[in-house]
């Protein structure tokens, strides 16, 4: 790619920031456009879990993609710390998926066997072993699946560090920059229209999931993405209460540095509203307190909500949009945006700068992934039609 | 009182601010000393209820005092609005005390009869009448006691307006001003020692409940006051949900201007900790949502806690401390500080400027009240001894 | 207007809220759509001045409109307080426009004569008179123009109260509701498309100034509006320092209830960025401290910025858009949105419910105003062409 | 020291937290009492500079102490990260002390020679070299002294990490815990009185500088400490502007991770007020913008103030108080609390657990330092008498 050409990235969530960072690392002149503030939506609201195992329950491209993305984090964390001084709070202390009933226990054991067969570490713990590992857990649990390699990061810091790293490498980061349309020429996207003027570019990346429909509609393209609201809250404790992330039935409890604990998350599809509601917080808090009774004494900090962008078949769209040459989609990561951000960044940046070969070199298996995540894949369209 | 003499008020909660304001109105040169910020403790954390009936269940000085104090609010609100531009949010839309069981209903009916006999308005409502008045209430309630004259104010604004009003009338309001001791001469208090120097005064008012022990200890005086932590949270709704305050079994739901709703309050005696805890908020939220099911959809705002200063017999200390001439106590108002602040201000300021006669003129029945609230009364001391 | 029809108002700034409120008062079923939060942009960032004289320097429709709008505030304040409990902080303590040089003094005297001739109160004050009225002002001023009828409100509270009042009267207020397009049928606007679905309506009001271009572009309509960034900061003082608003050369100092002081505002055209910048705050602070030296001791609170929507000829667009039947514009109020909100609300709501006759009845002279503010007026278009 | 004995540390600023952490590391059961929140005062307000050279201008115990303390930070940062997950943001990118005049340049050159002779790195830079190293600096500077080894940390994170680390090692951290007096027996301090009860301990550390007078007064001990208010503000920039800390004439500009910049600090002796004032911020901002003109475009974040505890001779008090056996003072670190916290923690903890020999082993030269910082040294007392 010629040093004079630009790539415009639309959307300053963790996906857009990761792509901008990887492009800047590859010597590309990038402009990142964010309509509000960096990581102002879901990326800043996330608990930051890297659930490469806990969120994946069957073999397939998502499973591979997730594991590869997780493996990129340790180097990235060092790189960003060196470059920007920011610490993304990466830890790998593992997770316990706890069972309240025999049925849940059986399902988790099956899940554990799947991960073992896939070459990952996963171990079923009896109630006694569970309590030995995490004494703060309820004594009434029927055991837990231990995934010792699961980790998490500080989600807002991750996006901030990627954006700051990109800026340090020469990228232009523009906040309060609304994209109002795409510039096209002979059916090819050649830049973007913002409220402050036109920006021409050799390539354009669309990484703004829930606002993508507005941008694509005038081109007659539809990439279905739906919002799923997730409500969370945070607590603080003085004395350490948990070492690992605890999860059970939609509720997870993530111990963060310095005694902070994030509890998440509800899943309410269909609404663009971003307000945390009393009823949701109440049931989430009841679940968390049942799992870790001593949380009753934790200090309340605050509550918030974010919208995760879901696609019909549960997989992100990554790749050029067939009907719009020059427009590369990287969106729809649902609740795995933090985890998948790194592999998405590497994949998008390598394809954009060196094509399929570069992608394969950067991320072995890239070809299959790109095939699976094609924006015009049938599965997504089929799901829409139903 | 000579225009050259000063009165120092220790403590910038609502009681200290009210006394400073009433003194300034009477032409006294006042200095108010607050160790942190105005209304930074319980006075800023209160829901602002004026529970002249709902908090009082038997005849006696507290009952009289509460009703008189409530009656002072309408004039005060106008006065402060005129003087400072601040609106204290006074409303008198009434309260419903709701019953879940027949036993609760019977107790509330008895309470209602007491208030009727005492000349106040109180009316028992059937479940149907309750629902007609407040359609947002649970249909499972057994009825409610309607106290149509109960009201509330915005607690932080009340203290702020009293302090601003006092300042406007010439009082000196000093924040970040720690009183480290009292100056005495021949057994008489003649001023205060602060970290920034001495302030001499003709009179000194002690209105800092939970820090009073530190100030009185060197003089060998003990005025027992205990902290009782109260946790609250606030919500917002777009469409009006309630017109009146709802109360039941320790939980109250107070509709504030503009769709804000305050839910309070736990009562945890003995701790000076001011952190809102998950467990307390959880049980409070469950109570509130059971009372008003549509609160489940309300937006969460924030949670906080305050410490109310309780005395052994439940009554405040108001009057000169026998063993320390020149030192006037006005503290220990427990969870009725907002309500009682106005009568306390008038009582203290009139006694200090004109003695018993002036107090009687300003507040008929003042003599009996001052007798009941004497800091050296036997009841308080007796309760301590046990 | 039929009770079954709806009007959709796009934009929850002060203009949209005022129109929704006036429509709800007239019995119309209104839905207000705000992409973020009510008054989240310029309307919440304003200092709230009602500069019916200070902002107007020549006869014409803007001058008349401003004075009529100002005159609507006292009744409105009472109405909203009664309906919602919210106090909009209306005061009419006047303003001093201060002169540092003889040239400024001459210009202000001329301005004063204009206002006197127009029947308004305006009085030139010598340096001595200026200092007598406002002792906090610099002794180096060459005098000031006194406009005793100028006032101000609390800007965020005004929008909040209008929205809450509208909701109380049955309007539906929807936040986080992005309008992505207009629904049209045979060239007539018949509703809006949001990310959550279509809303059909008998009439549609466009009150979202800086986002209007995106909505109008697909219809081929252009209503030029430009952002002008304004930076402000606030201070607090314990002892009253000023009674009146002080203005000089782009800097104004507005004393708010309870010792709060707002200092504004820069004017930086052309940028959509909403960040307060150090350099701008520095020069604004230097101006303010020169005007009122004792501000040096005021406590810093915070800084912020907002974008005012400016039109080419400085007048708002109010009226149906010729090319889009059914679409009524009410936008582009630049830095007078707070002041003009009430007359705009009355004008728009009366036209929409009763046509020109109703408008004339509600606001005498409405016909001329509507002619002057026509969205397709030549002046605006001409200014664009240049 | 017996495992059953306790040490109570009074004061949860950076000094108290560091001592508690070092004691916990040595196996001591510690209780840390903080009247408000951890690092709620000066320790949380600091810019976090480790000015081992920039703050020291002559040989002596302070100079040695500062360099030793600085050298402890790299290991500490790793230790705390491992133990608590918190990153204290340690960087060592150096500092430029800039000269506007020839006189300033001469003074800085002399300062540089002193540091070179003392074995430290220090280099005078011409205007051209200065601009080459930091292109953002004003072109009008006469050069700068480059201290390449100076660094800084994130001050609030440092205290938080020390407290969390201590807690993890078994210390009890109590916030909202006011110490109202010391318990004594035969002239020996045997614990503390808090508002919630007595705590007996084998040793007591007094690390609460500006509240120490209240605690010591009843024992007839005077350790003079004076508050010096420091006001600061923070900015953010998207593109990196500075790599090193810039200092000139009381103003320093500290580039923090992720584009945050802290500008400090005024020095206003004698007041306990903790409000940032407009006048101070204005002159600080003018200085900063003159040094780095592009700061004019930086985004304003917020302003705050803290009180630094100064002693008459500029040195902290570290050691047992002669008149109160069992009471160890560690306070009065003025504006070098962050820098000196580590050596103070090691010194205090080693003396308390193993006496002079242990201190010498832990920190060579400890004996001389303890002699210099003796609370009853003549210099401090002499300075008071004048």
TrEMBL record, chains A, B, C, D:
Keywords: Oxidoreductase, Thiamine biosynthesis. Signal peptide: none annotated. GO terms for molecular function: flavin adenine dinucleotide binding; glycine oxidase activity. GO terms for biological process: thiamine biosynthetic process; thiamine diphosphate biosynthetic process. Its EC number is 1.4.3.19. Pathway: Cofactor biosynthesis; thiamine diphosphate biosynthesis. The keyword Oxidoreductase applies. One of its GO terms (cellular component) is cytoplasm. Residues 6-349 form the FAD dependent oxidoreductase domain. It is an enzyme of class 1 (oxidoreductase). It holds the Pfam family DAO. It comes from the Bacteria. It catalyses: glycine + O2 + H2O = glyoxylate + H2O2 + NH4(+). This is glycine oxidase. It comes from Paenibacillus chitinolyticus. The lineage of its organism: Bacteria, Bacillati, Bacillota, Bacilli, Bacillales. The gene is thiO.
């Amino acid at each position: 790619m010629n040093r004079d050409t630009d790539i415009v990235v639309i959307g300053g969530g963790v996906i857009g920031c990761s792509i901008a960072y990887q492009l800047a690392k590859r010597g590309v002149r990038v402009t990142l456009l964010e309509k509000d503030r960096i990581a102002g939506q879901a990326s800043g609201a996330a608990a930051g879990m890297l659930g490469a195992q806990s969120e994946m329950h069957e073999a397939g491209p998502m499973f591979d993609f997730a594991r590869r993305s997780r493996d990129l984090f340790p180097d990235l964390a060092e790189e960003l710390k060196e470059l920007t001084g920011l610490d993304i709070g990466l830890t790998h202390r593992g997770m316990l998926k706890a069972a309240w009933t025999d049925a849940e226990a059986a399902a988790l054991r099956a899940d554990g066997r799947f991960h073992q067969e896939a070459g990952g570490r996963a171990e079923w713990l009896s109630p006694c072993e569970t309590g030995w590992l995490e004494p703060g857990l309820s004594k009434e649990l029927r055991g837990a699946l231990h995934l010792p390699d699961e980790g998490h990061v500080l989600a807002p810091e991750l996006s901030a560090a990627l954006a700051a790293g990109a800026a340090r490498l020469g990228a232009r980061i523009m906040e309060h920059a609304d994209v109002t349309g795409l510039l096209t020429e002979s059916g090819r996207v050649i830049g973007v229209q913002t409220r402050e003027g036109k920006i021409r570019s050799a390539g354009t990346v669309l990484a703004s999931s829930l606002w993508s429909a507005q941008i694509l509609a005038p081109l007659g393209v539809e990439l279905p993405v739906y919002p799923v609201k997730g409500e969370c809250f945070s607590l603080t404790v003085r004395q350490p209460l948990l070492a690992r992330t605890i999860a059970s039935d939609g509720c997870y409890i993530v111990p963060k540095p310095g005694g902070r604990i994030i509890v998440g998350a509800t899943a309410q599809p269909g609404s663009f509203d971003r307000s945390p509601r009393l009823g949701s917080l109440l049931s989430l808090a009841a679940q968390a307190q049942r799992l870790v009774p001593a949380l009753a004494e934790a200090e309340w900090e605050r509550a918030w909500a974010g919208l995760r962008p879901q696609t019909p078949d549960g997989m992100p769209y990554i790749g050029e949009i067939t009907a719009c040459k020059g427009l590369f989609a990287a969106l729809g990561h649902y609740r795995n945006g933090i985890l998948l951000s790194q592999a998405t960044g590497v994949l998008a940046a390598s394809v954009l700068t060196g094509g399929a070969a570069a992608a394969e070199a950067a991320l072995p298996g890239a070809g299959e992934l790109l095939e699976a995540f094609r924006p015009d894949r049938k599965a997504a369209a089929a799901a829409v039609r139903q």
